Amino acid sequence: MAKLSTIKETRARDVRYEAKTTVNKGLLILLMLLFIGAALVLIPSINHNVSTGISAINSQGGQVNQDSIQYSTIFDTLKYERSIHILAMLLVGFGFLMVFVRHHGYSSLTATLLVVSVAIPMYTIIKSFGGEGFSKPTISIDTLLCAEFAAAGLLIAIGAPLGRLKMDQYIIMGILFVPAYILNEWLILDSGMFKGFLDTGGSIIIHAFGAYFGLGVITNTLSKFKGDAVCESNINSNLFCMLGSMVLWLFWPSFTSAIVAPERVVLTAINTIFALCGATLATYIFTKIIRGKIEIADIANAALAGGVAIGSTCDMTTPGYAMLIGIAAGALSVIGYTTIAPQLEKLIRGTDTCGINNLHGMPGLLGGAAAIFITGKAGTQLSAIVVTVCIAFICGKITGTVIAFLSKKELPYNDKDEYIVA
């Protein structure tokens, strides 16, 4: 009888697995049709925005000697170079930063590629439509940079549930994230409701939004994964993580200076580097004071907190103040990883795999608050921060509820359930 019972359980499990596979194939076909539809939307005969952009490029062919066009081309080329630096941050930096999870490297890197590939076209398509104050030209380096910023916010967000989602769920999370990001971006920056709000490099709009969206996704999920494998790292995974961290550190000045006025690019780059230096030094000191020995995860993550925090004021402050902001951000981030993270997990009843609250959430809020000393508009600055956090968390919670319908990952923090692993 026991043997018969075991056979029945095995058959039932196989039937359930086959049913899941069928559902996933249907979802994949639906997603493929959606992506084909997205490409069709960007055909000039359908999208007036695209048609206008192509016509403008063609009309400039015989006018290359005009000074205004020459200057525009030079500035766009310089921005293009920074856009490639940002892509390096998104794919190599974020990708390898998230490889710290042992046995999850394939998944971390693939998820990085997938969500970037979702975010950039989706942001561009949505911003192709709408009235004045909302739409952006599709054939534009500025629009590409803004789309990359959206992708950065999404990569931050997936860090919270990293290792506990299937690949399909990352795609769905991206599809739901981008409209929420655009809504908040328009509300805070373009609607006119928060005039005087300062956030040049995205401490709030990108980093804090991504962090609290991700935390919203993982709320009340702790019991769902109770008894499953825990997140682990080893020497090799941590070395790859450090590689990602150093790539992010290297290109961060391009991120913060991507859309600033040309005359402020050098100041912005210097301020960003000084903030990163301050955070790195503070991270070393605080990880050693609090832990007794150096924790490589602190070095890989908290050392970047200066880049997060300086974002709001990157083009408006001086190197000295920038370094102080970086020191404060690095210290806050280490305290987050060592002390605050366990308390936050209990509060939201969810596990923040990458510690995005410690690297992006709290340092982002710190940077946004620091801008008050420049703008003098405490009410505007703080209200924009509160609105951003609320929109991010609520939309994240809704997203977490939606992707939960796709069932849970079979083997958390492991590639074997979705990849051919040698």
Automatic annotation (TrEMBL):
Organism for this UniProt entry: Desulfofarcimen acetoxidans (strain ATCC 49208 / DSM 771 / KCTC 5769 / VKM B-1644 / 5575) (Desulfotomaculum acetoxidans)
Membrane-spanning segments: 26-46, 83-101, 108-126, 138-158, 170-189, 201-223, 235-252, 264-287, 324-344, 356-376, 382-406
Keywords from the named record: Membrane, Transmembrane, Transmembrane helix
Domain of life: Bacteria
Tagged with keyword Membrane: yes
Entry's Gene Ontology cellular component terms: plasma membrane
Molecular-function annotations in GO: ammonium channel activity
Ranges where the Ammonium transporter AmtB-like domain occurs: 83-408
PANTHER family reported for this sequence: AMMONIUM TRANSPORTER, RH50, ISOFORM D
One of the protein's GO biological processes: ammonium homeostasis
Entry membrane topology: Multi-pass membrane protein
UniProt-listed InterPro entries: Ammonium/urea_transptr, NH4_transpt_AmtB-like_dom, RhesusRHD
Localization: Membrane
Name of this protein: Rh family protein/ammonium transporter
Pfam family, one: Ammonium_transp
Transmembrane recorded as keyword: yes
Main location class: membrane
